[in-house]
Amino acid sequence: MKQLNRVAVYCGAATGRSPAYRAGAVALGHELANQGIQLVYGGGNVGLMGVVANAVLEKGGHVIGVIPQDLMNKELGHTGIQDLRVVDTMHQRKAMMSELSDAFITMPGGYGTLEELFEMITWLKLGVHSKPCSLYNVDSYYQQLVDFLHHVSTEGFMTVEDRALLIIENEPVALLDKLRAFNPTTSTQWLSLEKT
Predict the structure, then answer these.
(1) Fewer beta carbons within 10 angstroms: which end of the chain, N or C?
(2) Other CB atoms closer than 10 Å to residue 12's CB: what's the count?
């Protein structure tokens, strides 16, 4: 079982239309804190980012935020968290979040959230890291994406094994359990460039 000390959560700077997205962020934040897992996130105080960070704080958990200087200048940084790290660029933000985290959870979000998910899952496939990547499929938000990835696989652009690298779950406790249980070297035909 993989030890989870810190988990990166990617999510939107908006809360979305459905109250379920906010409720899902609160549930995840509370569960991270209850299990003693530190949150690593984009450092914002708006949208689902702010909701999940505040939920961790409500339960006495620890939050690390990583935010670019230009967003900090727009007063979007969450100054109420224990550790807010300001970097120069979005690339530095993503690199630092990756380095700090033992696993990655993607909540509902837009372009930026999807970009972070696909970069991390691509790095996993290529062996740049061996950390589990997941979709927190709150209120079936990502179901059409899941269906599309199945289409990508059936059309021959992705192996079944590579599709299986992405953990999909709609409940926080089960999601964290699956992240701990993830073992790419035995459960998939995982390619590790680190070993070549």
Answers:
(1) C
(2) 22
Q: What is the pLDDT along the chain (196 residues), one digit of tens a residue?
A: 789 999 999 999 999 999 999 999 999 999 999 999 999 999 999 999 999 999 999 999 999 999 999 999 887 899 999 999 999 999 999 999 999 999 999 999 999 999 999 999 999 999 999 999 999 999 999 999 999 999 999 999 999 989 999 999 999 999 999 999 998 765 444 443 333 3
Query: The CATH number of the domain where 140 resides is what?
Result: 3.40.50.450
Structural domain contains residue 177 = yes
Q: What is the DSSP string of the chain?
A: ----SEEEEE--SS--SSHHHHHHHHHHHHHHHHTTPEEEE--BSSHHHHHHHHHHHHTT--EEEEEEHHHHHTT-B-TTSSEEEEESSHHHHHHHHHHH-SEEEE-S--HHHHHHHHHHHHHHHHTS----EEEE-GGGTTHHHHHHHHHHHHTTSS-HHHHTTEEEESSHHHHHHHHHH--HHHHS----GGG-
Q: Which pTM was predicted?
A: 0.92
In a domain, 193, yes or no: no
Question: Is residue 195 in a domain?
Answer: no
Domain count of the chain?
A: 1
The verdict on residue 17 lying in a domain is yes
